[in-house]
Amino acid sequence: MRVLVLSGLRPMTCLALIFISSSPCVGQSKTATDINNESKIILEWVAKTYDLTIAWQNVSYPIETKYSVPRILLKGTQVVPLPALEATYVCNGTNPTPAKVNELLFLLVPELAKYPPSFVKKTEMTKIILARNLTANGKPVGGVAPPAFSLFLADVEKLTVRTNYGVQAIHHEFFHKVDHRIHRDDKGVAMAANHPLWDANWEKLNRPGFAYLNPPGGGAPPGFTAEPTDKFPGFLSRYSMASLLEERAEVFGYMFSNPDFVEKRAKADPVVKSKVNRMKAILKEYCPEMDEKYFERLSTERNFRFVALPDLSGTPKK
Ligand SMILES: [Zn+2]
């Protein structure tokens, strides 16, 4: 989840789906005629390149999910099952105007083009839903990535107010989908934080004694902003301290949206550097095309695109 100013909810962590109580959406409408021709070409390009639908019309809200988190406790080599943790997420919103969709697509798609197609396809993501007035459990959010669905939702109004925020939010939400894949066992069951396959290596990068907030019952205290800062040693933002999954999404998001900031922080802060290196290792293992050369290009090429964007020259806007 990507919060606007304050974190709103407990992060979307390792949760196994029990049931989906309502249809997440109707998908791309047959009448996408209200967006401009460039946007139509872009939507086709995204579908062809990434097997990904960007839906913005006729989406039915609320999108509601109920989860049961399987939990175990590790005592040495002994595995002790714990009662499952039940949780419900309700995402609400309304359908955006075509004008705002046009605007967001020109923000979103050049960012998507930084990803190798295999990276996107491995997430099993099928859809990005563009919304306005987006909320998660009643709290306004810029984006939310429910782990039970192969999609994430993005608020076109909030993400286009400030470009930097919007770009970071897009990458942040996308990484949640990657992490949902990473933190599943071979049967597709989401893992709890004390599961042996959980990425304990990440937590070990923090200073001794540090604990993520992991607020019980959702929510985070005021001040947990997602702004980039050097105020918190070892972390790129205050929001990164909310939970392991939120921090990983923040690190990934800033590596893609603000590589200069990440490089500067990594040079001055060995913990940040170790997290960036760990993220690179995770990504290379997840998608071999994301190797040293890939990250070199990401940090040095101003308009880095792994996949060339469609040529829109000569396309009438209307
Ligand atoms: Zn998040």
Commentary on this structure:
With 318 residues, the chain is α+β, with helices and mostly antiparallel strands. It has a single domain (2-300), classed as 3-Layer(aba) Sandwich (Collagenase (Catalytic Domain)), CATH 3.40.390. Helices cover 36% and strands 19% of the residues. The chain contains ten helices and eight strands. The protein has helices at residues 37-50, 98-112, 117-122, 156-161, 163-182, 200-204, 244-257, 259-268, 270-286, 292-300, and strands spanning 2-3, 16-20, 53-55, 63-75, 78-94, 127-136, 139-144, 151-155. Strands 1, 2, 3, 4, 5, 6, 7 and 8 form an eight-stranded mixed beta sheet that branches. Strand 7 and strand 8 form a beta hairpin. Helix 1 runs parallel beside helix 2, helix 2 (98-112) crosses helix 5 (163-182) and helix 5 (163-182) packs across helix 7. The two termini are 34 Å apart. 40% of the residues are buried. Mean pLDDT is 82; it is low at 4-30. Residues 1-2, 11, 172, 176, 246, 249 line the site of zinc ion.
CATH structural class:
Alpha Beta
Task: State Rg.
Answer: 19 Å
Going by CATH, the architecture would be 3-Layer(aba) Sandwich
Low-confidence stretches: 4-30
SSE string, helices as H and strands as E: EEHEEEHHEEEHHHHHHH
Task: Please render the helix and strand layout as text.
Blueprint: E1 2-3, E2 16-20, H1 37-50, E3 53-55, E4 63-75, E5 78-94, H2 98-112, H3 117-122, E6 127-136, E7 139-144, E8 151-155, H4 156-161, H5 163-182, H6 200-204, H7 244-257, H8 259-268, H9 270-286, H10 292-300
Parallel strand pairs: 3-6, 6-8
Antiparallel strand pairs: 1-7, 2-4, 4-5, 5-6, 6-7, 7-8
Helix pairs in contact: 1-2, 2-5, 5-7, 7-8, 8-9
The structure holds zinc ion.
